[in-house]
Prior knowledge:
alpha/beta
Amino acid sequence: MSGHVTFVHLTDLHVGNPAVVDDHLYSDTSTTLERILADIKLLQPAPSFIVASGDLTNRGDIDSYEQLKRLIAASGLDIPFLFALGNHDRRDGFYPAMLGRTENVWAPYDHAQVIDGIHVIVLDSSVPNKIGGAFEPGQLDWLKAELEQHADLPKLLVMHHAPALDANPAMEWESLSIDDTEALRQAVAGKNVIGILSGHIHFDRVSNWYGIPVVVGIGQHAATDVLWLHEGLRMLEGASFAIGTLRSSGLSITFAPQPASRRELHSFSFAGMAEMLAKYEASTPVAAE
């Protein structure tokens, strides 16, 4: 790698099928994505790649992914897109629509690519019908093998659920599981991991996780009111994306918020949240059309 390398981090796009009314979609995410892609097109120098760290759609159906494809194509951006899957995504919707794949559609979507001297490793932390994240058998073995590749290159990890910041089981809904967080810590120890890009919690946050920057973004659906977290979750109008730059000194992140009134879109207490989690995890997936 020579000079600076710039990239864009998107997360929680929550794109929906415009032909279907979705009571759980609280903002016009298609219009927000159009505006953000237009902003990205203005960046100079142009970013080397764009990563989207999960919750690409709100319902995970094929038509919503087709809408996502249309929006990206209409942007005219000729930049590699790398996608991770989140808890709102569905593998049986993503694979056929985005990759044209019709076999083995329930397998985790793990992949890696070297772009302009950065080894980007994307992990699928989604678990069908679960809000929190975890790895399935074999994923960490794949990661360990991938980390051995391109040993001289800096490595950027992308996954929807950020590692747990402490061992509080009550907070596993917002992160990778505690057990898999520890397994991930052991897997990346001693490797040149310059950062982890994640989403899921809908607010901008940068953490030092055992020496590795973990960057979480608001995303495009709604912004979590961090002043209300003692009560529950209050979702406000708000969206942003992040511009990452890798310099010889390391990784820097600049957040690019979209104009917003921060009006309330939805809220519920932690008591209501427990009921919501139970309903979500007891729901039956709808077969992809």
